[in-house]
Amino acid sequence: MSYAMVVTAPGGVENFRLLERDVPQPGPGEVLLRQTAIGLNYIDVYFRTGLYPWGVPADLITGGEAAGVIEAVGPGVDLPVGQRVAYTVRNGAYASHRVIAAEDLVPIPEGISDEIAAAVMLKGLTVHYLIHHSYPAAAGDCVLVHAAAGGVGLLAGQWLKHKGVRALGTAGTAEKCALALAHGYDAVIDYKTRDFVAETMRLTEGKGVKAVYDSVGAVTVKKSVEVLETFGTLVSFGQSSGPALDFRITDLSRGSLRLTRPTLFHHTAQPGWLRKASAEMFDLILKGTIRVEIGQRYDLKDVAAAHTALESRKTTGCTILTP
Fold it and tell me: What's the whole-model pTM score?
């Protein structure tokens, strides 16, 4: 037998329930994966609450990144049984076993644990497209990253530093600010005690930043625009505080600004991107350029508690669920 944590209907964490089921079997082009580590992400909350549309009427299995071991393969698959692999897809990760398309899998290199792989497939690849495509930060640039002490934020600070970029961040407590500072940021602003707009302008001597990477949404987007220099770029890639409904396209006219709202899965759908970007990310982890901070671990059956902690901003770094 296997099990999954399903969401019975859109709503709160009380809608999670454990569903026992037979171990699924792979079809053509698919593998059966015994999952060993699952990453927690805010997109999981978006799906659980119904902010993002479901593809099923009920009992959604959410979760977008995980690692595990191949236990069986379907026709046409050349991956070996026993191979450790990781993936990021829209949903389906909150399970002890799952069937998944072989083309969605990335082999895990020696020297990288299943937990580390599960922690970075969605978050690390998000950082990759943010800083290489959405706004390709270059050496000498200064940028601002919101939620700097979160899973994406801690990875972004280190990767930006590696690229020679001056990264400023925001976080919600002194402890989170200190954590982000230890992960590549030049300065981190406690947004609960200081105005991040005024502080960003002070830190840049009134010039502003080339780009803002904003995953917070409602409470930050309009202010994020205020710290961009002329021709700057607002990269809005999440909405943990809700959608920015008061934002208007005309707000960009203050500096001939650019706005982009990217998603990871448009990038992973590009031929060759997933393997190439994953290889670059794993290489930086193996070299020690990027350290992966796993701040919390939960049993998969306690996923409701993990969601509650994430939504109440009590987490730092990456959170791992263990089946």
Answer: 0.94
